[in-house]
Amino acid sequence: TGSVLVSVREHILSMQLKHLEACRQFHDIELAIELDKLVQEISGRARDIIDEADEVLHHRFQLVYPIGRRGNPDGKELRWHIMESVLHSVKTHAKELHAEHPSAITITTKD
User: Fold this and answer.
1) What is the pTM assigned to this prediction?
2) Which of 19, 14, 17, 11 is nearest to 35 (CA)?
């Protein structure tokens, strides 16, 4: 109690990955159990403090460690249909808003 752990996000993500890896590889059960305790402790108490959010959240700072078998993402092609529906809805509502309040919104389209 009363202690503070300061860490960069990459180290937390790396530790979580190591936990998943240890859980999948049953040869190191003790490590998996200890990492599970640590992950639970950090998840329950950790707070993210972001400085320079635009820079920190840039994709080049995101770590991607694929593990396990390759598979399709959840939703497969449904994800594209959802995005198309959302964009169509935005287009429709933007036109309606512009018709009601012409000075409130500017619409620029590409033909």
Assistant:
1) 0.41
2) 19
